[in-house]
Amino acid sequence: MTRFGKHPDRDATDLGAEAVQGAVADAGIDPRAIEAAYCGHVFQGMVTGQRILAQVGLAGLPLTNVENACSSGATAIREASLAIRAGEHDVVLAVGTEHLTGRSQGAPTPDPSDPEAAVGATMPGVYAMRARRYMEEFGMTRSQLALIPVKNKKNAAHNPLAHFRKEITVEEVLESRPIADPLNLHDCSPVTDGAAAVIVMSDRAARQYGNGRAVKLAASTLRSGSVDTQPTSMTYEPLTWATAEDAYEKAGIGPEQVDFAEVHDCFSIAEVLRVEGLGLFEQGEYPAAVERGEADIDGRLPINPSGGLLGKGHPLGGTGVAQVVELVRQLRGESGDRQIEGARVGLAHCRGGKAVGIEGAACTVQILVR
Amino acid sequence: MTRFGKHPDRDATDLGAEAVQGAVADAGIDPRAIEAAYCGHVFQGMVTGQRILAQVGLAGLPLTNVENACSSGATAIREASLAIRAGEHDVVLAVGTEHLTGRSQGAPTPDPSDPEAAVGATMPGVYAMRARRYMEEFGMTRSQLALIPVKNKKNAAHNPLAHFRKEITVEEVLESRPIADPLNLHDCSPVTDGAAAVIVMSDRAARQYGNGRAVKLAASTLRSGSVDTQPTSMTYEPLTWATAEDAYEKAGIGPEQVDFAEVHDCFSIAEVLRVEGLGLFEQGEYPAAVERGEADIDGRLPINPSGGLLGKGHPLGGTGVAQVVELVRQLRGESGDRQIEGARVGLAHCRGGKAVGIEGAACTVQILVR
């Protein structure tokens, strides 16, 4: 993955190309071994992936651009894995990229046709309501919620590619600029540019090229939002659970076997909703678990060791691929001073599109095993 | 497919939903048999496919939005077929949609960062240069070129879902408003809204649900543009040939066995370049063949019996899926007074992105067999 952050002099193609070259170098393969590619992005305009291939000298390959809101990068990996399972290809590139600052300086503006956004139900607004409701239902304190950005930015400080490299305190979270009460600036993921890429291989190719460093993609699942799978409560995510349940079943691995996870903490409260929706913590119990240090890198179940979206940054298309990059590096034991000891099973979760409602959401879960 | 045309009171979601409901009705299946979906579009914004699923009561399914410029809809079908071949699903929906008039009243404006477009190398400009060069190299007359929109609009007049339902004459083409010399208004595909959908099935599901009406998808291939596969001449398309060659090989069917084709006639000259690039006609010979009626519905090798992009219209994401709808209906013998007698092998071709250059193009070829 590229350094995440603000890259005023670059664009999504250039960042994507850097990530692809990094993935090829990491895999130790001849780039000509790559047979096809998928590119995940949201706002970068048509044929972005084709431009990336041309820039790295791989034009001509089959390439499909995919978009599933904040799950776009993860979807690229899923489609790469399907192309392999179809027997169509053995070595497939998945790249996710976004030059979000080129699109907007603040949060992306809502679709003008969205009547809910027009009355204030923007992403920060909806997550603020969910935070308030969670506090009401489960007694979470504002300071407990603030511990999530504190933890994630601490992890990010140990990640040389993260957008933010500075630890913060609970007081700094509480005193940062209000965005949508009770969420302050430090409760919100930043507007980030960045890209990440992975090489997905068949078992056969992994034996040929893997050098024992390949990590198994045990499941890669995707679901869209629906009346049935959207929250009927503000504090639980049936869509996250449905997608995770598919993944646990495919991988033959239950939530109790997951050693660590990268989850879609677009806001501090989102991390709570995700880990509980994934079945990694009981509903209502995550804030206290964070307070006890259970989600720290040296805790019982580390969450967002990379720094997550809050600390590492959130370049929409790049996000889901970067999560898998973190999983791979942790499972290989290459994560330096943020290494999770003995990590064997990692889970990555993304959720994009509308936060609450009956339509327009996408969720992905990937499980990787050493 | 929906009626193609200008739909000021509708949007891409609504059109997509109509197409999906039509495809489900045509297939005679319970919509709950659909296990996953792909949505192709270019300009409709994030999670368009998820909105369509929600509108038809199918939210919750895995859905991936795909974008490959004018090949987006065809790519949705390719990805659906890969998901089936992977053994992941048996019944997959592919929908393509575009509300292009909602995006722009004229041709989509070029990317402001494109230096070639800034000096006039827009789509009409580049195709005009290719037409001029083709006339120079192969002696095509302006009137011969005009016969292509005449043929396609004649076919469209027999297609109740086409954007244009009125036959035109060579004189009308020659006297229509100049766009980029030598191309006039009737040489250019229109700005169209519309959607189309198909149900892709495994062999097993086709036996269960097909009622003998299923048509075999013998190949669905995709390539991106590159230095090697882009035209070194203005009058031949190596990218089209490379993509077609993949398809012929996969299908075990050569160009001489193709009975009819839907090709990407975004401009009159484009039809010439496509059919010659596909190996369906020898280079330099297509204009005279059209003059002899060989590409007519009752000719030796009918091209664009639906009316093509020039006559049926060109709603970017909808285009590639609508081509396959035409192939299926022709192969089933359901095309009424534009039916091709004895059609057994049909080919569909799309090409999107930059017309000339080293990057940013996508090409698809699909071969269907009765």
Overview of the molecule:
The structure is a homodimer. Chain A is of the alpha/beta class. Chain A has helices at about 10-25, 50-55, 70-85, 115-120, 125-140, 140-155, 170-175, 205-210, 240-250, 270-275, 285-290, 310, 315-330, and strands spanning about 35-40, 65, 90-100, 180, 185, 195-200, 215-225, 260, 345-355, 360-370. The first copy, chain A, folds into two domains: about 10-105 and about 195-215, Thiolase/Chalcone synthase (Peroxisomal Thiolase, Chain A, domain 1, 3-Layer(aba) Sandwich); about 125-185 and about 215-370, Thiolase/Chalcone synthase (Peroxisomal Thiolase, Chain A, domain 1). Chain A has 13 helices and ten strands. In chain A, the strands form three sheets. In chain A, strands 2-1-3-6 form a four-stranded mixed β-sheet, sandwiched between helices. Chain A has a four-stranded mixed β-sheet with strand order 7-10-9-8, with helices on both faces. A two-stranded antiparallel sheet of chain A has the order 4-5. The longest helix of chain A has 17 residues, at about 315-330. Chain A is globular and about 55 Å long. The interface between A and B is large, with 53 and 53 residues.
Keywords:
homodimer, alpha/beta, Peroxisomal Thiolase, Chain A, domain 1, 2 domains, 13 helices, 37% helix, globular
